[in-house]
Amino acid sequence: MFPIHRPRRLRSTPQLRRMVRETSVTASDLIYPLFAVPGEGVANEVKSMPGVYQLSVDKIVEEAKQVYDLGIPSIILFGIPESKDTEATGAWHDCGMIQKATTAIKEAVPDLVVIADTCLCEYTSHGHCGYLEMGDLTGRVLNDPTLELLKKTAISQVQAGADIIAPSGMMDGFVQAIRSGLDEAGFPDIPILSYAAKYASSYYGPFRDAADGAPQFGDRATYQMDPGNSREALKEVALDVAEGADMIMVKPALAYMDIIWQVKQATNLPVAAYNVSGEYAMVKAAAGNGWLNEERVVMETLTSFKRAGADLILTYHAKDAVRWLK
Ligand code: PBG
Ligand code: ZN
Residue 325 region, left (φ>0) first, then alpha (ψ -120 to 50), else beta? Predict the structure, then answer.
């Protein structure tokens, strides 16, 4: 018998395929990460992330204009400070790198949505995401003292012009602490994009070159999530929602598609997926060797994040993706 049902009927031309496509990526879905460093005229390419640069404020402003002109609505900023200390001064100081870059970008491109990554790891001498007792080499980050520093950091980032605060340190109660801090400081309308389900992942390797934020001892397993857990991700998400998160992030993305899907089913908030540095580096390395078609692999991957439930995607491929969409 010949088949009656012929799904191939709707695949026969590019136009038909376009008409019945369920999921597609648009520029509006994308958030582009940028790294601000001290100095002037600085553009250091990150070795493990070809095409990604640490940029001084003057250069980051040029880059932000380009991003905006491409139709990408938003960037997320990371800062690399002049010097690091146990109090993470560079995170919350008015002259911190995120603060300076934010102010300059908002002045030059007011409509570009600036998301400030709110964490301490780039600014602490030990490279952990929170505060720890002097001389504590076990790397046991103290939760509640860290909350005070995160609050200060978020307030100062918003005072500098940040539109959205994205706390990434996986401290218990950080959304509530930052929410109340922002409210008390007179910023009740600034949304929080919480890195709610962030795993202790080896895919962050290249980022730690880019942001110079590798822990000097120990690892992040006492605050970031264990890769074996998914019910726990739903618990983290539920807590952050209860604490007032406006958007929820899952990170990394590629190896955690099931988490993106489950989180999407569990919340009616926008869900963001972070296509992290290691995912970028793998594609770049393979493409550089001629082993993969970069454009097709990236577009397939980004589409798959959306199919899994992501509303927003943070990706180092954002600028390329938008060009490929045209
Ligand atoms: C630090 C932070 C990390 C990333 C974003 N914020 C690294 C880490 O937790 O060690 C990773 C991003 C990437 O790999 O692209 N809080
Ligand atoms: Zn951190």
Answer: alpha
